[in-house]
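Human:
I keep going back and forth on a fold encoding question. Comparing notes only helps if you start from a blank page. Show me how you would write down a chain together with its backbone fold. Write it directly below this note and I will take it from there.

Assistant:
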Amino acid sequence: MSLLSGKKIKHKIKVLSVLFLAAFLMSTVSSDSFGQNTKKRNPNISPLETKHSQGRLEQTPQNNPSPQEAEIMNEMNRIKQTQNDTRAGDRIVDLQKELETMNGSTVTKPGTEPLGTIIPASHFSPQETDNLNFSNVIQYAYNYVAGLATQVEQRGPTAGKIWLAVGLANGDTGILAIPDTISVYYSANNGNSYNLYAKIAFSAHNKIDFDNMDMEIIENTSGTKYLHIVYGYRTNGGYGQPLIGYSIVSAPTLGYAGTTLVFPGQSLVSSYLRPRITSDNTRYPSNPYITIVATQDSLAGNEHYFMAKVCRVLSPFSTTPAITYLAKSIYSTFAGHNYEVMTDVANFHNGSDSLIFVLSAYPGYESNLYFYKAFSNSVVYPVSSGYSTPTGDDLAYAKVASNGGTNQKKIIIAYSDNYDNSDDFDQWAMYSSNAGVTWDPETLDYTSYNDSKYGDIIGRRDADGSFSIAYKNIYGNMENVGSYTVSGSGNSYLHSLNTNYANSVCSPKPAFRYVNGDSCLSIWSYFYSVSSTGGCSASNLYVTVALEGFYDEVLDQHPTYEVVYLYLAETTPPYNIVDTALTYLDYSSMSNVCTFARAPAGNYYLIVKHRNTVETWSSTPVAINTTNPAFYNFTANNERAYGGNTVLKGSRWCLYSGDVDQNGNINLEDIISIHNDIITFVFGDRLDSDLNGDDYVNLADMLIAYNNSLHFVSKITPP
């Protein structure tokens, strides 16, 4: 199992319908105090009422086409139905321009001045990868990972190829700042390995916005495929105006063009944020339309006015398509400020082709999710479909997805719920089987020990009811990656996909693999690296472990994030090892969640190993399964370790420190090893002979080992 950099990080780092989800979490909390869910309110998973109040957010621009305009729109729709003729898109654009001369409701124009240049992969060295379940896309980028977006090819002989765009920020700012880049990778083997395809080098001193990127793939049954990537960036070395970049990359023959989206009425005092992109390519292989929505924050005096601006691409089989902009916001606006305001969009089919827009976190209305729908085969304004108030808590980061196939009406919205507005976020989802007429809410994580948010969602094309959600499952100071997947092979939920640090400015991204039908895939990042985790089945275990030498009984914490290895052993001799895992213990809670990828459901002894502590076994077997997480706290009392093989330090029972050579005993050999490092003045990070984690080997370390050797401390295992 691969690890990222072993550098020590100090403590500076701080629906699905009822048929889809079981109450998998609340019923499995053990007597370990760190696993107790202290929420006082049961989640409300009753069907939601869709409300209508005629408020400003439900007031949308009117669509009143004249008979002549309606005739042109019908002709555009007729041409769109034509199969196997991607050139028909140019005729559709011409008709749209003709409409504009009649009503002025849209503006169609080519891209502005070029944004960025393309650099082929041949200019760079190969990227490192490892195994199927966990792959390094970028092991160390020398830049901050600023954004992620992914899509999977689903047509033709290359169906299943995974595409990934990675925004890389240099970390500098100002007029002398180096422009940032977007690297494009692909995997042709279900995420087993990734290859660099090309890099997009930004123009001038443009800096990519953090966690502000989305992607759509446009593909016919054969021929060239196009990656349409939207992202936020800032001019003037990061201090200028926030704008929306739009880049298109073609494959297998590399082509590129990039531009800035310029919405009608755009001004220097407006910020453009959080672009989201979708298409109807599922139903229209030859003549799809792309829809892009972005949040506009306009400043008038000291007042902020948030709007949702929309543009369409009616001929997307090109790296330089014309862009058709709707002139107005899709809803009426008023003063207020909330940086988390955003609108997302998805394409679905309900007898006619439709778009659904979802607005969340509008200032003063944070407890509501607002819905808008439009006929997607024409460039028209959406109309309000009401709103829902799931819990009364503030909501944020709502993302919507559908499958897009004929008469496929299932839609899921993933969103974060701020429990009692206490900054304890839970990841929720709303599921509709009837194209958004009614909604059923459900919790993906509803615990007091996880802060779950920033979820994103993807629907597999033309696979009715197949969805994947990935989100941050923040446990103490550890930003783990959680996922929930609904597919033809069943549902799966994982509390933690990452085997190392996932602390990052980026949110994880969900995708699919073409393994056993639908299979799970999540892309996630650390500050300087990007990783891919594939597979749907795993067991999660929350474990608490204190290390004698590292544990500070006054502060009740470790000084560092320490790695421990965990093993599952059979309960009968010879106690064969069934599965292994590792986890970084949070320095403050000395606990984290680990993932066992292969163990069958059952009861196992839990074994903990650390580089300089005595191997310690659980006193009794632990129940492990892929449905519910297990909990085990070695620090609660000495009866949690087999044979009581822990030592009390302050209020915690700790694993004995001093087994430097890991032979199961603390004895003279360990003391000599520490002594030799003392006299040669060894210091550094994660040393086996550094028993207290202060980066130095000295008398304090020797005394810990010496005292334990006097008591003949050794590992104790079942007979």
